């Protein structure tokens, strides 16, 4: 596995295609009965019939294609380094926001599976998957994955409190280290404490920008921020306890309940604007 600038795949049939972090576009054309694993900035298909396990930082685009989409769960030793080299954040993933340029009336040309199950995989897909699941150093288990699937895609329990967390980059921290720490923080919450991750956003704020956006003089951070919306039983207590275990101070801000709506509106909009550029 390695990173790349762009990838084009043409005229494949009955193939297993695995694409490591790609800085630009993955474009698949005229391919039939193929299974694809991909991490990329942009994903496009034309005249294809595919099953796709996908991480994509922009909305996938299909044209004259029939595609089954699954979220990608993946870990290997250098995935953080490769994603950083490709300029990809593990916290900006729009895999499920598919845009079909050639919709077929009322019959959708694509299906979204929130997680792979035996019933959602064809015999062909199962046979291809079996070839890579035993490869040493590769893991496709959710509990080990460097990539996350947000529970907003899985109909979370509406009775549970939702808490917004700001994970802030300390000045002069290498971005690869920052992302690795954020992944470990989230993995502890989701695996050890069984909390659910609802949404993530990743963006950069300039000096004084947060004060203007949130209309609060007490907010002074500048630099990169990851927002994490988390839910589950005793979520605030668990977040507070877990945040105290971090080596660096002031990395985690747990947003008060009465400020959450305003923070989400303003910060999510900022993230959307930055990621659309």
Note down, in words, how this protein is organized.
Keywords: GTP-binding, Nucleotide-binding. InterPro entries: C-CAP_CF_C-like, CAP/MinC_C, Tubulin-bd_cofactor_C_dom, XRP2. Belongs to the TBCC family. This is C-CAP/cofactor C-like domain-containing protein. It is built from 6 helices and 12 strands. With 277 residues, the chain is of the alpha/beta class. Strands 1, 2, 3, 4, 5, 6, 7 and 8 form an 8-stranded parallel beta sheet that branches. The protein has 2 domains: 138 residues, Pectate Lyase C-like (3 Solenoid); 126 residues, Alpha-Beta Plaits (2-Layer Sandwich), CATH 3.30.70. The model has no long low-confidence stretch (mean pLDDT 89).
| CATH class (first level) name of the largest domain | Mainly Beta
**Inertia-based shape:** globular
Instruction: Estimate percent helicity.
Output: 25-40%
Total strands: the figure is 12
Examine the coordinates and then state which fold CATH places here, giving the name of the CATH topology of the largest domain: Pectate Lyase C-like
Q: How does the helix and strand content classify structurally? A: alpha/beta
Oligomeric assembly: single chain
| Relative strand content | 25-35%
State mean pLDDT (0 to 100 scale): 89
Which residues sit in consecutive blocks of at least 5 with pLDDT less than 50? none
The helix/strand series, from N terminus to C terminus, equals: EEEEEEHEEHEHEHEHEH
**Major pleated sheet:** 8 strands, parallel
The count of helical stretches stands at 6
């Amino acid at each position: 596995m390695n990173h790349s600038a762009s990838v084009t795949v043409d005229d494949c049939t009955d193939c297993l295609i695995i694409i490591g972090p790609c800085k630009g576009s993955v474009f698949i054309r005229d391919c039939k009965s193929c299974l694809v694993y991909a991490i990329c900035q942009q994903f496009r298909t034309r005249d294809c019939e595919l099953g796709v396990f996908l991480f994509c930082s922009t909305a996938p685009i299909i044209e004259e294609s029939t595609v089954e989409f699954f979220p990608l769960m993946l870990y290997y030793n250098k995935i953080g380094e490769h994603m950083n080299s490709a300029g990809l954040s593990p916290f900006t993933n729009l895999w499920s926001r598919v845009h079909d340029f050639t919709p077929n009336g009322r019959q959708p040309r694509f299906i979204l599976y929130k997680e792979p199950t035996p019933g959602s995989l064809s015999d062909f897909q199962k046979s291809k998957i079996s070839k890579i699941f035993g490869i040493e150093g590769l893991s496709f288990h959710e509990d080990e994955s460097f990539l996350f699937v947000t529970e907003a895609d899985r109909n979370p329990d509406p009775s549970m409190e939702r808490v917004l967390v700001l994970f802030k980059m300390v000045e002069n921290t290498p971005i690869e280290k920052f992302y690795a720490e954020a992944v470990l923080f989230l993995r502890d919450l989701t695996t050890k404490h069984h909390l659910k991750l609802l949404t993530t956003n990743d963006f950069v704020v300039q000096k004084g920008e947060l004060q203007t956006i949130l209309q609060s003089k007490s907010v002074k951070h500048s630099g990169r921020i990851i927002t994490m919306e988390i839910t589950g039983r005793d979520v605030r207590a668990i977040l507070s306890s877990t945040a105290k275990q971090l080596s660096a101070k002031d990395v985690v801000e747990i947003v008060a309940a009465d400020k959450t709506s305003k923070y989400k509106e303003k910060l999510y909009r900022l993230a959307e604007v930055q990621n659309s550029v």
